[in-house]
Amino acid sequence: MNESYSINSAGINQSQHVSRLYSIQPIGCGLLHVESLISYVSRLATAHCVPTGLLVIKEIAPLINPKYGFSGESCGGVLNRIFANETSALNGFGNWAFGTVNAVEKLTCRTDISQLTLLNWKKVIFNRKLLKQQRAWCSFCFKESLDNSQSLYEPLSWSLEVLKLCPAHKTPLSNICPHCEKGNRPLSWYSKPGFCSKCRGWLGIDAYTYKVPNLKFKAGEDDEQLHCIKCVNDLLCMPPDSFSVKTKVSIASHLDHFLESLSRGKDSHLAQLLGTSVTQVRKWRKGQITPTLASLINICYKLQIDFPTLFEPICGEIIGKIYESEKKHKESSEKSVSYRPIKKATQKQKLVTSILETALLENPPPSVDDIAARLKYRNSSPLYVFAPEICKRVTQRHKIFLKEQQGKFKEQQGKFIREVLERFLGEYPPKSLENIASELGVKPRTLRSYERSLCKQISNNYSRFRTQKKDEKVEVLFEEMKQIAQSLYGKGIIPTPSRISPHMSSPGSILRLESRKKLEQFLQENEWF
Ligand SMILES: [Zn+2]
Ligand SMILES: [Zn+2]
């Protein structure tokens, strides 16, 4: 690494400048699976065949601060001293991340390295509880990358404290090595995607053959985690200019808006709904503090809104204006108490109307009851009072949707029944339609309502089969009687049905009409009767 490199090959930037380190392409920029800065640095070290720690202290750290020079020590302790036990911060948006991004960009002649950190979020998200203090990984992802001969890397999302599931596999992220049973720091001397930095063992799912990682969550947590994945996806895919100082204002005004519509203006209601303290809610509303990422995600989950909506400054401003004008109005008409409820009702009506109008664009179309439940109304009557016409349209859309769903279901069921009946039709011995229906757990008439002609064929087949079986049985009985008659005659006894009957294997069967008729005919033919 004492010389500079410029290599023209796949994945390496063909920059005019000669970069000191290989200019490897970062993975997934602008996507949910965007690589983390630590992962990128580890891959860079692997490409140069040196331990990650060595690359960091020899090349990166001196560019962050010249006094972090290489002193000849080669252990993870140096890293922790440099980064003050906060190696996870390299993926975040503080000074460490900023310094490391600058250093790596200088060394690789790239300009996209900041996308591997949370630097873009600096203005909008609170630093507290943002990053995991331990390395977390998805063993399925490692295995899959290896099987598909893709580069092993670690997405930035895995390092977020809020995310406990792998966004790709929806399975809990692991943090204990199956070989040495130890956890890993986010950045270590031997950090390498796919491998334990302590024992350097493979971390793919096949390494967990004996110890399956704990893949269970408390009830309800799964749902929240799936919602969390969606929010993180939205966040990582949002263009960097979505995060402006206005965001704080828009989050505050969104909370105000919900306070008015859901909690009837009471902080305590909103605090209860969000599972937080009243003081917290007040501070958020006033824009005094920015909610943590976990709180933002929780707000979206509890208030059932899309994550990007929180960051929409225009919408936020409009709502803010509405709120401001309403506040002014309240102040001016504070004394005329009788007038206030009417105004408040109008405000609510506007809100409900706009929510119902938005619902008209939703797919699948919700029912009015669904929307009422979202707005925490006990039933849908207030919605019908506020906007009867729109409610009718919402209901109509929902009905059409239900009808379509029923149609689709019927079509699928019809196809299934046809396939099953065709299969039974080819089987021997054939089954009765009643038997088939009971096997399928339906009534024969249901089968007939879908496939009348197939059902008829099945019934005909079955009754032909029954007749054939009966004929065969009569023939067997007749053969037995014939032999007994001949034997009796041979002994000088005139065979009659009553004399034959006791010698038969089942004497009563001589009473059967068909076999009896045949026997009488036989006896007459031989003039024994
Ligand atoms: Zn995964
Ligand atoms: Zn290990």
Describe the structure.
It contains 21 helices and no strands. With 529 residues, it is an all-alpha fold. The chain has three domains: 1-232, no CATH class; 244-330, lambda repressor-like DNA-binding domains (434 Repressor (Amino-terminal Domain)); 473-525. Helix 16 runs parallel beside helix 19 (452-490). It is elongated, with a radius of gyration of 39 Å. Bound molecules: zinc ion (ZN) (2 copies). One zinc ion binds at residues 177, 179-180, 182, 196, 198-199, 201.
Topology:
Blueprint: H1 37-47, H2 52-64, H3 76-82, H4 95-108, H5 139-147, H6 221-237, H7 246-262, H8 267-274, H9 278-285, H10 293-303, H11 307-310, H12 313-332, H13 340-359, H14 368-374, H15 381-386, H16 388-425, H17 433-440, H18 444-450, H19 452-490, H20 497-500, H21 513-525
The chain binds zinc ion (2 copies).
One zinc ion binds next to loops.
List keywords for this structure.
binds zinc ion, disordered N terminus, mainly alpha, 3 domains, 434 Repressor (Amino-terminal Domain), 529 residues
From the alpha carbons, calculate the radius of gyration and give it in angstroms.
39 Å
**Structural domains: how many:** 3
Count the DSSP helices.
Answer: 21
Bound molecules: zinc ion
Outline:
elongated
Low-confidence stretches: 1-15, 314-323, 333-342
Number of strands: 0
